[in-house]
Amino acid sequence: MVVLNSLYSPFRISEVEIPGRLLLAPMDGFTDSPFRMICKSFGASLLTSEFLNGIDLAYGHPYLKYKTFFQEIERPFAFQVFDDNPERLLSAALKLQELGPDIIDINMGCSAKNVSNRGAGAGLLKHPEIIKKIASSLVNSLHVPVTAKIRLGWDDQTRNFLEIAAILADCGISAITVHARTRKQGYSGTADWDAIAALKSATRVPVIGNGDVKSLTDALKMIDHTSCDAVMIGRAAIGNPWVFAGENRCTITVNELFNTISRHLSGMTSLYPERVGTLLFRKHLSRYLTGHLSTAEIKKKIFSLDEQTLLLETIKEILSIEE
To answer: Residues 6 or more apart from 201 whose CB is under 8 A from it?
Structure first.
């Protein structure tokens, strides 16, 4: 049986030491620097950016400077990049490397239709020869470790994750994260932990398991079941970064909830213009305040505010926090 302390023992991805086994999954629209910092404060050991589009890195994007921003304290830190074009993806990775990350991760697992249907993300799983070209070119061209995040396949009829993993390992990929669902499943159904175990048995590189981990108990069960080297937590951390510390939003005090909300919002308004940061924070706030927004009137009030101080005062009222 895997013991709790093992979750906080270090392991290595190539020459990069990762101080623990609980990693924050890259999530589009969520894992910007402020959220990553909150998760790190509760125990997340490797932080990864939102996935970055090779097209945006080639031609520019108004939010690119926010998406690529990270702080020294976030290390070890990885940029994740996606594209369907091997040459453009390599060019994007080289640009990201100039910003000084510890790791570059290739997204081969995004199931969103606007990504996978163009042949990027999980769409690459249909084309092992393109994956080989991408992996070999990045490994041979970058001086930081290159990792990859995959799914089990496009659908149940094309579960080619063992073939893809063998290609990646042969190309010199330093670690493989597997979300144990197919692209067709998206986030539905149950993650196939047996597949993670099969991948761990079949490959020599570190394997990071992902899928249906909502607590430290789940993380321990996944490692015990699969022998994976680390566990990646994604959706379960949104509005509940305490998951990395073995706690849960439902059991912490309202004062701790408010303090975390305040720190997170402050990070958002420091990175972005205040109004933008406050508006972008709403998707986090709705998760933080689950169970506290009891009426439509309260919801309307809280989500109509775009000024930081007034928003925090209103949250205090909702949580019944006295000065």
So the answer is: 227
Taking only the tens place, the pLDDT of each residue in 240-282 is 999 999 998 888 999 999 999 999 999 999 999 999 999 999 9
In terms of C-beta density within 10 A (0-12 exposed, 13-18 middle, 19 or more buried), how is residue 202 classed? Answer: middle
pLDDT tens figures, 66-97: 999 999 999 999 999 999 999 999 999 999 99
Across the chain, the runs of DSSP E, i.e. the strands, are 11-13, 16-18, 22-24, 47-53, 77-82, 103-108, 146-151, 175-179, 207-210, 230-233
The whole model's pTM is what? 0.95
Residue 92: CB partners within 8 Å, gap ≥ 6? 52, 54, 57, 58, 81, 83
With contact defined as beta carbons under 8 Å apart, do 105 and 79 qualify?
yes
Rounded distance between C-alpha atoms, residue 125 and residue 255, angstroms: 46
**Dist CA 111 CA 106 (whole Å):** 14
Q: Is the dihedral of CA 172, 177, 181, 186 positive or negative?
A: negative
Domains, the chain, ranges and CATH?
4-245 (3.20.20.70), 254-319 (1.10.1200)
> What is the spatial distance between Cα 191 and Cα 226, in angstroms, rounded to a whole number?
12
Q: From the candidates 110, 171, 228, 250, which is the catalytic residue?
A: 110
User: Is 110 in the active site?
Assistant: yes
Residue 133: half-sphere exposure toward Cβ, Cα within 13 Å: 14
